[in-house]
Amino acid sequence: MLVPAGARAKTLTAQFARYLGIPTTTRMTQAQLIQLALIDEIHRLNPRSITDAADLLKDLTEQIGATFVYAGINVTTTPLFTGVRGAQLAARASLI
């Protein structure tokens, strides 16, 4: 992500959103741009509780007006995104 010289907080936030593929407009406030939930190291979820985790993440994406970013190693092949519940969660995500 390239930050423009002399960027203010709103400009930096908008650049970060665009980098992640989140649509922005110049009229958006900084609060509207910040609606982002970043979950890092998602590959470390316990495989025995993946069903509960997938259900929770699915529920959160439906209830919270935010863009969710999942970060981790080989996340597309983890149990979180496979199986019946995982397929529902994977259908709501895009690999970047």
Task: Note the topology.
Elements: H1 9-19, H2 30-33, E1 36-39, H3 50-63, E2 67-70, H4 83-91
Parallel strand pairs: 1-2
Helix pairs in contact: 3-4
Folded structure, characterized:
- With 96 residues, the protein is mostly helical.
- It has two domains: 1-31, no CATH class; 35-96, no CATH class.
- It is built from four helices and two strands.
- The chain has helices at residues 9-19, 30-33, 50-63, 83-91; strands spanning 36-39, 67-70.
- A two-stranded parallel ribbon has the order 1-2.
- Strand 1 (36-39), helix 3 and strand 2 (67-70) form a beta-alpha-beta unit.
- The model has no long low-confidence stretch (mean pLDDT 81).
Number of self-contained structural domains: 2
Order of strands across the widest beta sheet? Answer: 1-2
Instruction: Return the structural class.
Output: mainly alpha
**Mean pLDDT score, rounded?**
81
| CA-CA gap between termini | 13 Å
For the largest beta-sheet, the strand count, sense and barrel status come to: 2 strands, parallel
Number of helices: 4
Q: What is the rounded Rg?
A: 15 Å
| Helical coverage, percent range | 25-40%
Q: Give helix and strand order, one letter per element, not per position.
A: HHEHEH
Q: Spans of 5+ residues with little confidence (pLDDT < 50)? A: none
